[in-house]
């Protein structure tokens, strides 16, 4: 359920006609619906109402400060994967005791920052990381709460680039090494093992991989209990899929029910790290048709948004629904590749897609662009990153201004001015 609908033939974001937003902010433009963000957060959170839990929204899906503030106000914690995400979360006002920190490559300065902030826990992915965190916490006179991320070796049956819970992936500790790692964690001075963590992949459209991972984790949890290691948290990661096209992913309540059953009789607090399932359908990317073109049999619709603005189709071959912002029931159908202006053949938003015939100047909406959209954008081809707007009912707000040409070159100007230091004349001409 989201709040992007056609009224009288015109796409609205909540109560606002999309063309009105485009007139004010230009294209390409990311538009988010605040009501949809809240609704999706609440759907996920309430699905676990039957068990003690903390819903830690995965910041990497969409890390805009205003969005993080919105979710924090609604009671969400966050899952972060970098020092930059920690900085954003704190800046947005997420309480440190609701922050969990995942990721295979935590650097010293990032661990330091998280220790100073006093986050809830680190999801630790290797023995070396465990030792590093212990040593750093000790030298600050602190004890870091940690979970070990277990790789449960289940096949999430999703795209290989976004599956993380198989033995061959770089993530987590194999089950058979994890026991020794917990024993080590108990002995190390600077860490306190408090939880068990996994994250098996993204855009999962079946419940069974979750159940399988959950069963393995609970087995392992009982082995730990038998060895006198008692934990407080079970972190199931994220990964619930959404409908981009015709997928029918499980509803959060199905996962909630399965989890409640699995942890019955324990006093575990469940941690969830949903990203896409909250963010995915909260946003659209609006783009303007520039040209129509035909090479032989092949038709192209050239738009002003490229793979640098939304990379998912190019990177994963992902499907995004695309429709004209103004409905045109009488227009003949056109089958075309919808492509951007980037100088790469991989630059497309859709291939062989049937849409109603459009003309230069028409607006197209690319749906389900709220997760892994703007956050994965780049300035490739020296294209300033686009603007983001948040809509709530009949109000709208620019939550990230469009970058300028100056934003492109600013970080390079110092090097330009000092080029002489390399023996290269820096004066023009
Ligand atoms: C990416 C990620 C998530 C969120 O995944 P979604 O598929 O967006 O729900 C959660 N936890 C970890 C550790 C991740 O890397």
Task: Characterize this entry briefly.
This protein has 429 residues and is an alpha/beta fold.
Question: Can you characterise this structure?
Answer:
29% of the residues lie in helices and 26% in strands. Strand 2 and strand 3 (16-17) form a beta hairpin. It is globular and about 70 Å long. It folds into 2 domains: 4-31 and 280-410, Lyase, Ornithine Decarboxylase, Chain A, domain 1 (Beta Barrel); 34-278, TIM Barrel (Alpha-Beta Barrel). It has helices spanning 18-25, 34-46, 65-73, 83-91, 108-117, 127-139, 175-187, 208-226, 252-262, 276-279, 312-316, 405-409, 413-417; strands at residues 4-7, 10-13, 16-17, 29-33, 53-58, 77-80, 99-101, 121-124, 144-151, 173-174, 191-197, 233-235, 269-272, 283-295, 298-303, 322-324, 333-339, 348-356, 363-366, 387-392, 395-400. Helix 5 (108-117) packs across helix 6 (127-139) and helix 8 runs parallel beside helix 9. It is of the alpha/beta class and 429 residues long. The chain starts with a strand and ends in a 12-residue tail after the last helix. The strands form 3 sheets. Strands 4, 14, 15, 16, 17, 18, 19, 20 and 21 form a 9-stranded mixed β-sheet that branches. Strands 5-6-7-8-9-11-12-13 form an 8-stranded parallel beta barrel, surrounded by 4 helices. It has a 3-stranded antiparallel β-sheet with strand order 1-2-3. It contains 13 helices and 21 strands. Pyridoxal-5'-phosphate is lined by residues 58, 60-61, 79, 81, 102, 199, 202, 237-239, 273-277, 371.
